[in-house]
Design brief:
By secondary structure, the protein is an alpha+beta fold. The protein has one domain. The chain is 40% helix and 36% strand. Strands 3-2-1-4-5 form a 5-stranded antiparallel sheet. The longest helix has 33 residues. The chain starts with a helix and ends with a helix.
Protein backbone atom coordinates (compact mmCIF):
# COMPACT_ATOMS: atom_id res chain seq x y z
CA UNK A 1 0.00 0.00 0.00
CA UNK A 2 1.30 3.41 -0.99
CA UNK A 3 0.82 6.26 1.43
CA UNK A 4 -0.29 9.19 -0.68
CA UNK A 5 -0.84 12.82 0.16
CA UNK A 6 -4.57 12.25 -0.19
CA UNK A 7 -4.49 9.55 2.51
CA UNK A 8 -2.54 11.79 4.87
CA UNK A 9 -4.82 14.79 4.33
CA UNK A 10 -7.86 12.51 4.51
CA UNK A 11 -6.83 11.19 7.93
CA UNK A 12 -6.05 14.72 9.10
CA UNK A 13 -9.46 15.92 7.89
CA UNK A 14 -11.28 13.06 9.63
CA UNK A 15 -9.40 13.80 12.87
CA UNK A 16 -10.24 17.49 12.62
CA UNK A 17 -13.86 16.64 11.75
CA UNK A 18 -14.22 14.43 14.84
CA UNK A 19 -12.78 17.18 17.06
CA UNK A 20 -15.07 19.83 15.55
CA UNK A 21 -18.09 17.51 15.92
CA UNK A 22 -17.33 16.89 19.60
CA UNK A 23 -17.00 20.64 20.23
CA UNK A 24 -20.24 21.32 18.32
CA UNK A 25 -22.18 18.77 20.36
CA UNK A 26 -20.82 20.19 23.63
CA UNK A 27 -21.81 23.73 22.60
CA UNK A 28 -25.21 22.49 21.50
CA UNK A 29 -25.72 20.78 24.88
CA UNK A 30 -24.89 24.04 26.71
CA UNK A 31 -27.16 26.09 24.44
CA UNK A 32 -30.03 23.59 24.82
CA UNK A 33 -29.63 23.58 28.62
CA UNK A 34 -29.73 27.39 28.69
CA UNK A 35 -32.82 27.43 26.49
CA UNK A 36 -34.54 24.75 28.59
CA UNK A 37 -34.26 26.75 31.82
CA UNK A 38 -34.97 30.12 30.18
CA UNK A 39 -38.28 31.93 30.58
CA UNK A 40 -40.06 32.68 27.31
CA UNK A 41 -42.02 35.82 26.56
CA UNK A 42 -43.19 37.70 23.49
CA UNK A 43 -41.08 40.57 22.26
CA UNK A 44 -41.71 43.31 19.74
CA UNK A 45 -39.29 44.55 17.08
CA UNK A 46 -39.82 48.25 17.60
CA UNK A 47 -36.82 50.17 16.30
CA UNK A 48 -33.82 49.85 14.04
CA UNK A 49 -30.58 51.64 13.40
CA UNK A 50 -27.84 51.59 10.81
CA UNK A 51 -24.40 50.35 11.80
CA UNK A 52 -21.20 50.58 9.85
CA UNK A 53 -19.70 47.33 8.61
CA UNK A 54 -16.14 46.64 7.62
CA UNK A 55 -14.90 43.76 5.48
CA UNK A 56 -11.23 43.23 6.28
CA UNK A 57 -11.10 40.26 3.88
CA UNK A 58 -11.84 42.30 0.76
CA UNK A 59 -9.08 43.78 -1.38
CA UNK A 60 -10.29 47.35 -0.93
CA UNK A 61 -11.31 47.05 2.75
CA UNK A 62 -14.93 47.70 1.82
CA UNK A 63 -17.15 49.61 4.19
CA UNK A 64 -20.92 49.41 4.22
CA UNK A 65 -23.92 49.61 6.46
CA UNK A 66 -26.28 47.06 7.95
CA UNK A 67 -29.64 47.48 9.64
CA UNK A 68 -29.89 46.20 13.20
CA UNK A 69 -33.38 45.76 14.63
CA UNK A 70 -34.06 45.88 18.35
CA UNK A 71 -36.63 43.81 20.25
CA UNK A 72 -38.14 44.90 23.54
CA UNK A 73 -39.65 42.47 26.02
CA UNK A 74 -41.02 42.62 29.55
CA UNK A 75 -39.63 40.19 32.12
CA UNK A 76 -41.46 38.76 35.11
CA UNK A 77 -40.01 41.55 37.27
CA UNK A 78 -42.10 44.03 35.18
CA UNK A 79 -38.99 45.73 33.79
CA UNK A 80 -38.72 46.23 30.05
CA UNK A 81 -35.48 45.12 28.38
CA UNK A 82 -34.10 45.40 24.87
CA UNK A 83 -31.89 43.12 22.78
CA UNK A 84 -30.47 43.49 19.28
CA UNK A 85 -32.10 41.17 16.79
CA UNK A 86 -29.93 41.70 13.76
CA UNK A 87 -31.86 41.85 10.54
CA UNK A 88 -33.76 38.56 10.94
CA UNK A 89 -36.91 40.33 12.06
CA UNK A 90 -38.87 43.20 10.56
CA UNK A 91 -40.13 46.23 12.42
CA UNK A 92 -43.45 45.44 14.07
CA UNK A 93 -42.84 41.68 14.18
CA UNK A 94 -43.70 39.81 17.34
CA UNK A 95 -41.00 37.29 18.24
CA UNK A 96 -40.40 34.81 21.04
CA UNK A 97 -37.66 35.87 23.47
CA UNK A 98 -35.98 33.54 25.96
CA UNK A 99 -34.30 35.11 28.98
CA UNK A 100 -32.42 33.90 32.02
CA UNK A 101 -34.85 34.17 34.98
CA UNK A 102 -31.94 34.97 37.33
CA UNK A 103 -30.63 37.72 35.03
CA UNK A 104 -33.48 38.99 32.80
CA UNK A 105 -31.15 41.17 30.73
CA UNK A 106 -29.48 37.97 29.46
CA UNK A 107 -31.80 37.15 26.58
CA UNK A 108 -31.86 35.76 23.06
CA UNK A 109 -34.41 35.34 20.33
CA UNK A 110 -35.61 31.75 20.47
CA UNK A 111 -35.06 31.40 16.71
CA UNK A 112 -31.38 32.32 17.23
CA UNK A 113 -30.84 30.43 20.51
CA UNK A 114 -30.88 26.99 18.92
CA UNK A 115 -27.33 25.82 18.18
CA UNK A 116 -26.88 24.01 14.89
CA UNK A 117 -24.33 21.29 14.25
CA UNK A 118 -22.99 19.98 10.97
CA UNK A 119 -19.64 21.54 10.09
CA UNK A 120 -17.74 18.64 11.66
CA UNK A 121 -19.73 16.13 9.62
CA UNK A 122 -18.85 17.97 6.40
CA UNK A 123 -15.15 17.88 7.29
CA UNK A 124 -15.38 14.13 7.98
CA UNK A 125 -17.05 13.53 4.59
CA UNK A 126 -14.28 15.52 2.87
CA UNK A 127 -11.70 13.40 4.72
CA UNK A 128 -13.41 10.18 3.62
CA UNK A 129 -13.46 11.47 0.05
CA UNK A 130 -9.75 12.20 0.18
CA UNK A 131 -9.02 8.71 1.53
CA UNK A 132 -11.10 7.11 -1.23
CA UNK A 133 -9.28 9.29 -3.77
CA UNK A 134 -5.95 8.14 -2.28
CA UNK A 135 -6.85 4.48 -2.83
CA UNK A 136 -7.84 4.94 -6.45
Amino acid sequence: MNITIELIFGLMAITLGVIVTIVEFRRKRVADAWLARATRVEGLAYRSNEVETYNHMSDNFAHGTATVHHVKYRAANKIEYEIPAGSLVKLGDTVEVAYNPDLPSDAKLVQEARYKVGCGFVIIVVGIGLIVLGFT
